[in-house]
Give the backbone structure.
Amino acid sequence: MTLKYLNYDVAVIGGGAAGIAAAIAAAKNGSRTILVEAGPIFGGELLSGMSIDGVLNGRGEWIIRGVAEEIFEECRKMDALIGPLHDFRLICYVCVDPEIMKIAIMRVLDRYNVTPALYTQVSDVVTDGDTVRSVVLTHKNQRTVLSAKYFIDASGDGDVAMMAGAPTELSDASGDLQPLSLMFRMSGVENEPFLRFVRDNAASLAVGESEAVRAGRTDEELAQAIYDQGEPTVFFRGNGPFLGGAIQRGEVAPTALIMIMPTSKARKEVCVNATRVAENINGVNALDVSRVVSRLMEQVWSTVNFLKERCPGFENASFAGMAPRVGIRETRRVMGEYVLSGDEAAKAVKQRDVITKGAHHIDIHQDGTRQVRIPIADGGSYDIPFGCLIPKNVRNLLTAGRCISTDRIANGTTRMMGQCMGTGHAAGAAAAMCIAAGHDDVRKLAVSALQGRLREQGAVLDGTH
Ligand SMILES: Cc1cc2nc3c(=O)[nH]c(=O)nc-3n(C[C@H](O)[C@H](O)[C@H](O)COP(=O)(O)OP(=O)(O)OC[C@H]3O[C@@H](n4cnc5c(N)ncnc54)[C@H](O)[C@@H]3O)c2cc1C
């Protein structure tokens, strides 16, 4: 195998929501940037078809803008953005067409001259004391030593931070890991009969789980509000009559919720989040994940049939495809200079060192029909401090996305795509600012300077609940 060498200012590893935002932000702030992705396309879980949660709080105030907004704007231009929408349960979100999202991502990366490195896995790290000098890239026909001044670990799994010697955590004392799921889409769904069925079956829905969202309304009034909103944004409860009955009859596998959200008006298409294998599988163990793929696919197919046979509006709908890969909710968290707690998130605590915000309820899926859903106080938002992005023991490395420094409970909310984009924006801007200032340690960057830059670039750091 030949060995090649590359040199960049900033190397971002992982091309999901966090890595895309980080690469755009680093480039936008003046750094020569490369984005490394193991798969054949950028997007990660952004391409699953799921709603992009955590960009608004439960009251409908935007809390994530900046770089994320540039990607949404690109989607909007191609008629691929739906929302903001209320779920009348706990949150507000936007929905995107995952097929068009692929194009939107490439357009924004190209606009900022980010160098793409697809089909490329980081398999090793070269350190010099507590500085990362290079990462080793493995491609099909060669290996490349990629050197950079700053590295951003947006791998979801904290691969780079772990290899560089930062401490990581997996689960907590419970030893539990969230289930694996496989998203799928159905097209040709007729909205009106579907939403009429929803309106008339309030007892089958998850609604009004936060007082701020319920606002004194009955379940029936909230079901009517879903109907009036006019979009297929529906959460059937695993312990409600409609879905619970199907689980009892063995028509679908046990699940806490069937979550349905729109992806394309043109195709009358929805994304369905319904499947789960909850066996505490560690998503970094490829063979363990591979073992459950066929089981998840069978769950997909039985849910397709259940919806077609039992759910008004789906009678003539068609299976329209699956997410590009099995969804992994929880692996390593990289321990950093600050560890955000679930308590701080749930209480909507504001912090001096804020670099982005979160607002999605704490969402920890479990086995069977169990799931922890803890609302954020008052339908508001909590702050994520800069220290959550700075791994311990390493000078020139930041994290962004699912693997940032939190406890397991807080990870149940910071893992949302909105927060991945928000932490990505902050990490990319911070890396570029450190390079411009000649800092050899990210800790030398004044948080106030970073906050000023992020505000200039549209990030929301204050002024919301
Ligand atoms: C089943 C499921 C349902 C969810 N539902 C929602 C929802 O409705 N709304 C919401 O907002 N969020 C949801 N989430 C959470 C959210 O989708 C993810 O936590 C988030 O997208 C993670 O973004 P990320 O950029 O950190 O990681 P990812 O999107 O996982 O991207 C990481 C990328 O890094 C690449 N990579 C990993 N290791 C390496 C390496 N060593 N070298 C090179 N590349 C590497 C991967 O291929 C991947 O593309 C859900 C998650 C799952 C799994």
Q: What stands out?
A: Residues 180-328 form one domain. The pocket of flavin-adenine dinucleotide is lined by residues 13-19, 36-39, 44-45, 50-54, 121-122, 154-157, 159, 181, 273, 327-329, 401-402, 415-418, 420 (CB under 6 Å). The two ends are 55 Å apart (CA to CA).
